[in-house]
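Quick question, first post here. What does this chain look like in 3D?
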Amino acid sequence: MKAGGLGCLLEDLLANQVEQAKVFAESLIPLPPPADGEARAKTITAAKMLLIYAEDAGWSIVWSAIQQDPKFGREVMESVAHRAVYQGGIEQRLKENYMADLYIFLSKQYPDIKEQQEEGFQIKEIGGIEAHISTPEDSVRRWKDSIPQRLQERGTYQACEALQRIINELPELKDQLQWSLLEAEALTRRQTWQPPTPKELLQFVISQEPSNLDLSNQLNAIEQRTKKMEDEPKIENKITFSNSPNSSINAPVGTSGVTNSNVSIARSDAKARINWGNWLAVIGILVAVVAIPLSMSVSGAFNEEFKEWFNRTFPSKVEQ
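> Answer (accepted):
Ran it through. Tokens below.
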């Protein structure tokens, strides 16, 4: 069967959603596609019929073949572009990320019209009037230019992500596509916004409790603090000292700089250890020595003896 007859057969079957026809068409697209001849023509026909009639446009199979043979992709796209522009339907059956793949491929394979004019556009003069001869490439460019608008109209998060990916991979088109991305984001917000119910509005007006956002922020703060505390060293909540050469110290939980609950302090010189009992005894003796005479003088118990002692006369050195 020639490629033309195969196309008519697949068109009738796929238009009526015959699943076996889809499987058969996919089997006609080997990887990589045939290089030339009737086999290549049949492969192009099968890819064309899948793009036009298959529920998912047969994209997974067709796109794999296009990636391995970009020239094959150009031939397939040029065969369906006119129908895609004037009848639509192909990109509408593609997922948002597939539409991004398609647009990026077409942008690289088919530059803008202005760039083509600079390189030498196909123009003929008919009766003194310049007339442009439309070609399959022109249909592909028009189809390509409509894809961002189709993505924008989806109004989904996936469409916004697809437009952003296109901008990232084709930065030279950022100024051209940025507005489409902003419009897609605005439409997505409008389509996904859920208005509050009357009950929720009434609850919001009369409730004195913190809002869900406040509660969420507080819970997040508590969770972060708890996680931080879990990362800190865990040690016993007491401090003990001992006079042994290796003293064990237990610091409170969270003490800065403590990495182990048992900290050993080694003293190389035993004389340097503090003996608190001896120090207290010495301090007590000093206090007693000072306090006893002072109290006696204040009480007057020995005033006469002190006077007599101070009034004594001592012979001068000359008399001696």
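Residues 233-268 form one domain.
Confidence is low (pLDDT under 50) at residues 118-128, 247-272.
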